[in-house]
Specification:
The protein has 6 helices and 3 strands, in the order H-E-E-H-H-H-H-E-H. It has a domain of about 150 residues: Butyryl-CoA Dehydrogenase, subunit A, domain 3 (Up-down Bundle). It is flat. Strands 2-1-3 form a 3-stranded antiparallel beta sheet. It has about 280 residues and is α+β, with helices and mostly antiparallel strands. Helix 2 packs antiparallel against helix 3.
Length: about 280
């Protein structure tokens, strides 16, 4: 007996006067005015479905989002100190006041200079900026070297020293103000020159102190994180359990041996008479 395939199955020719399953039904026609369904462009693949991965089935990795809540607050102190020093290094930093008293005529005039007019000023600001850049790169997961906290502390500390030294070194010289005359000659002519520091210096000094404080805290946190974890000894009871008994010393002390009490014979009543002699 030969099995006859069922007409109309996939892969089998249709029977006589029978339409295949995949053929349109008689009388079918598209609705008038309906836009034709878009099809693939000849020679081009089908467009991917919405939400499907691109690049041949591989989705490119997304950059990790920065959680600012997890950033150490001391990092903001170092970065803010560097930026604040940069801004106020461009305002009046050094100042020199020229006072004239000649034939009863008194007058004074001030000359200002920013931090970039003297070595210790601009070098200290650059070091604070370097410390801020190191901290920012570490917190943004761009440069996570283990020595970043130490480099940050060194840069901010040397920057503070430089800015403090600019308190005693004024780049505005007497010769540049007095036209080449010395301070003795100027005083003989009734001209006095006094030097000082303006708001730019004091703000940069405060910014340097804040940067050093933040760098110290970051360095201490890194040192604590680098210490190996100390685990409790084996058998140590967890929290909430009574403490273990102390181990006994060796040799172990034996409990004292208790001797049984001496049992006396029971006495008779009335007591027996003593034997006659």
């Amino acid at each position: 007996m030969t099995d006859t395939p069922n007409p109309g199955w996939p892969g089998q020719p249709p029977a006589d006067n029978q339409q295949p399953e995949w053929a349109p039904q008689p009388g079918w026609a598209p609705q008038p005015g309906a836009a034709p369904e878009p099809g693939p462009v000849p020679g081009q693949p089908w467009p991917p479905a919405p939400g499907a991965p691109q690049f041949g089935g591989y989705a490119p990795p997304k950059a990790p989002a920065i959680d600012f809540a997890k950033i150490n607050p001391m990092a903001y102190l170092v970065v803010g100190g560097g930026l604040l020093a940069l801004i106020f290094s461009m305002v009046p930093y050094y100042t020199a006041t020229v006072s004239v008293n000649f034939l009863g005529i008194q007058d004074s005039e001030s000359v200002n200079g920013n931090a970039w007019n003297g070595f210790f000023g601009w070098f200290g600001v650059l070091l604070l900026l370097a410390a801020a850049a190191l901290v920012a790169l570490k917190e943004l997961k761009v440069f996570e070297h283990a020595m970043v906290p130490m480099f940050t502390l060194i840069a901010s500390g040397v920057g503070l020293i430089c800015i403090f030294l600019s308190l005693f070194v004024d780049p505005i010289s007497t010769a540049s103000i007095g036209g080449g005359y010395s301070s003795t000659d100027l005083q003989a002519m009734g001209i006095t020159v006094s030097y000082g520091h303006n708001i730019g210096f004091w703000v940069c000094l405060i910014a340097a102190l804040a940067s050093v404080a933040g760098a110290v805290m970051l360095f201490m946190a890194a040192q604590n994180a680098a210490k190996p974890a100390v685990y409790p000894p084996a058998g140590y009871p967890p929290a909430g359990f009574p403490p273990m008994q102390q181990p006994q010393q060796w040799p172990m002390q034996q409990p004292p041996i208790q001797e049984p009490p001496i049992q006396e014979p029971p006495q008779q009543w009335p007591p027996a008479a003593p034997p006659a002699v």
